[in-house]
Every structure is written in structure tokens, then in C-alpha cells.
Amino acid sequence: MYSIRYRISVPAVMLEVAPEGMEWIIRSIGRSRYAFDLIPAQVRVRPNLALEVTKIPDATPEIIARSALGDEQALLALVRYNRLMDRPTWVHKMPACL
After folding, report:
1. Could you tell me the CA-to-CA distances from 68 to 1, 25, 28, 53, 74 in Å, in that order?
2. In terms of CB atoms within 10 Å, which of 1, 13, 55, 66 comes out highest?
3. Using CA atoms, how far apart are residues 71 and 69, in angstroms rounded to an integer?
4. Are 46 and 29 in contact (CB under 8 A)?
């Protein structure tokens, strides 16, 4: 279930039985419990190939980069150390006040 929800596509057999204009999603209904649900087909966000690529120097510490395994946690570490979320939005985490 986890793989289908987060990592791979829904099997072709399920896609074929979905009515026109609908798609399957997997909803969490409790701890380690899931349910398949039909929803209206969603618009997928696709990158605009006409936009210019902005190169950012890699600021990930070497020990983190060396031990990154190519999974979600490695990606999150790269996003964190290179500040990929706060730079484009200019939203910075502020220290807690007294």
C-alpha cells in the first residue's frame, strides 16, 4: 500500500476500471489502514520548459552527501542544507521568541 501511495503508480488494472474523468487515490483511515477512493481527475503540475534554470551551489556537508542513499530522506537533507524552499519564497525560519 505504501509503495502505491507514495512511490509507484496505481496498477493499470485499477486505472482501467475507473470511470471517465475519475481517478483512484489511497486515503489513510487510521494507523496502517488505507482505503481506495474515487475522486474527480486532478490537474497535474508540470514544469514550464521555457523557464530559465537557476543554478545553486551545493552547500550540503560532505558527510551528509556521502551517506545520502538517494531516498526521500536524502532529498530532504539536500533541500534543507541548500535552503531550496526559503530562497525562492523568502520565508525564513525565525528563532523562537522568549
Report:
1. 25, 30, 29, 24, 5
2. 1
3. 6
4. no
